[in-house]
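Suppose you are handed only these lines of text.
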Amino acid sequence: MIFYFSGTGNSRWAARRLAELTGDTAIDLARLDKAPDCSGETRIGLVFPVYAWGLPEPVETFARTLPRTGAFTFAVATCGSEAGHALKKLDRLFPLRSSYSLVMPNNYILGADLDDEATARAKIDAAEKELAVIAREVAAAQPVCRVREGSLAALKSSVVHYGFNRFARSTKAFYATNACTGCGRCAKDCPAGTIRLENGRPVWGDKCYQCLRCLHSCPVQAIQYGKGTETKGRYTIEQYRPL
Ligand SMILES: Cc1cc2nc3c(=O)[nH]c(=O)nc-3n(C[C@H](O)[C@H](O)[C@H](O)COP(=O)(O)O)c2cc1C
Ligand code: SF4
Ligand code: SF4
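From them, the structure of the protein bound to flavin mononucleotide can be written out as follows.
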């Protein structure tokens, strides 16, 4: 069983590719309403994006609920460039036999830029090759640690990740421009269930994982986060790998 969390589709795509290649099933952990039954599973995998060199909150919460069975356990952390100690943190919550980082297009546009199209394409092509290798290793239950932690990983995964959770996950800067058509997609798809439509416009509650799905997936690019995103492009995996 492969559980995934994904904002803009990279981790969902990676989880589904791995499931296809290993004859397994990929399940969106944000859609589960109770702890999964993993009895009888020979493999348990987690695929998720790195957030500020650490774990997304739903992944951390979910990992704590996973049973410790005799199954082969592995995790793949998708990231724009480096994973820091995200996988080490996960290993403390849910002991892993194998840990991987998988570089994929960056979706963090609050203060950083998207990859250009050629870079994004090259990253996805390389990730596809790497997933084939990971699938063979996982199928053989071969313990592997292939993680690009980057520089100052301990500092970034502690201090910066703490700062991200404490100060950066506010929804106050989200708004929809007049381009909004009131289609409701942002409200339907938010994994935190925090967006509701009022008078045909999205309104954000407090809870937010900062997955950026709403920002990137609005069909008319109406959603902004402060002023900084107005000039930025948008990214979802479907631009490169249709579902
Ligand atoms: C809030 C946030 C923080 C991020 N932090 C990092 C990071 O620390 N290191 C990194 O390489 N990429 C970082 N990224 C980029 C994502 O990890 C990367 O694009 C990932 O593949 C997105 O996966 P998804 O499409 O499944 O959501 C961050 C993205 C977001 C939204
Ligand atoms: S997805 Fe975009 S167009 Fe649709 S309701 Fe949300 S902001 Fe408006
Ligand atoms: S409000 Fe947007 S960024 Fe926050 S959890 Fe929902 S979809 Fe993700």
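What can we learn from it? The pocket of flavin mononucleotide (ligand 1) is lined by residues 6-11, 49-53, 78-82, 104-108, 210-212 (CB under 6 Å). The two ends are 20 Å apart (CA to CA).
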